[in-house]
Specification:
It contains 6 helices and 9 strands. By secondary structure, it is an alpha+beta fold. The structure holds flavin mononucleotide.
Length: 211
């Protein structure tokens, strides 16, 4: 697959305040569709940045599982480092880097845990192997070796042999409720387009930023 022409199309087209959607969520969905159509593997991969109570930054990739006007949703182990950080400091940044299309989207917002109903609904759609993995792995803790993990997985397979696998109480999701969303489109001569939406408690305001 040759993506160079796709990239050039976007470099030529650029981003303009007059043409983007009034809602950054709608704009995100437009871009997401285009990235998805271009054949990317896991275009929903995003860097989730959190802050520790001591003020240290922490970043890792997670998968976006839902996005609507309420925000950006992902799932994880609720005893993981990221979950502890989000409980202590409920703020986060998300970064989507679709570099082959010369695109980046940055999101900043407050974070809320999902309800058990929302977590249950997504849990039910997960493949059985992923469900067993969630039981077998105490995410972010130290394990002696790979064998320990494989043994735990095997024990969970035996435990749940013929049954539906329940969602562990320590597995769920979070929603990042955006207050800032920036769209970056690479353009020739480093004169890239940057449009930033910020929420004013009533509506979204759009500004163009210097690249
Ligand atoms: C492509 C990709 C997708 C990932 N998706 C998730 C995810 O949706 N949820 C998750 O908890 N970890 C996911 N991870 C693993 C995280 O990056 C990270 O290693 C893990 O969540 C532990 O992070 P923490 O110790 O900071 O809590 C993903 C990693 C990659 C590379």
């Amino acid at each position: 697959m040759d993506l160079s022409e796709v990239r050039e199309t976007y470099e030529e087209r650029g981003l303009d305040v007059a043409e983007v959607a009034a809602s950054p969520i709608e704009q995100f969905q437009r871009w997401y569709q285009e990235v998805s159509d271009a054949g990317y593997w896991e275009p929903n991969a995003m860097t989730l940045s959190t802050v520790t109570p001591e003020g240290w930054p922490a970043a890792r990739v997670v998968l976006l599982k839902k996005v609507d006007e309420q925000g950006f949703v992902f799932f994880t182990n609720l005893r993981s480092d990221k979950a502890s950080q989000l409980v202590a400091v409920p703020r986060a940044a998300l970064t989507f880097s679709w570099v082959e299309l010369r695109r980046q989207v940055r999101v900043v917002g407050a974070v809320d845990p999902l309800s058990s109903d929302e977590a249950d609904a997504y849990w039910a759609t997960r493949p059985r192997g992923s469900q067993l993995g969630a039981w077998a792995s105490d995410q972010s803790t130290v394990v002696a070796d790979r064998e320990e993990l494989d043994q735990r997985f095997g024990a969970e397979m035996v435990r749940w042999r013929d049954e539906d696998i329940e969602r562990p109480a320590h597995w769920g999701g979070f929603r990042v409720e955006p207050r800032l969303i920036e769209f970056w489109q690479g353009r020739p001569d480093r004169l890239h387009d940057r449009l930033r939406y910020f929420w004013t408690e009533q509506n979204w305001v759009i500004e163009r930023l210097a690249p």
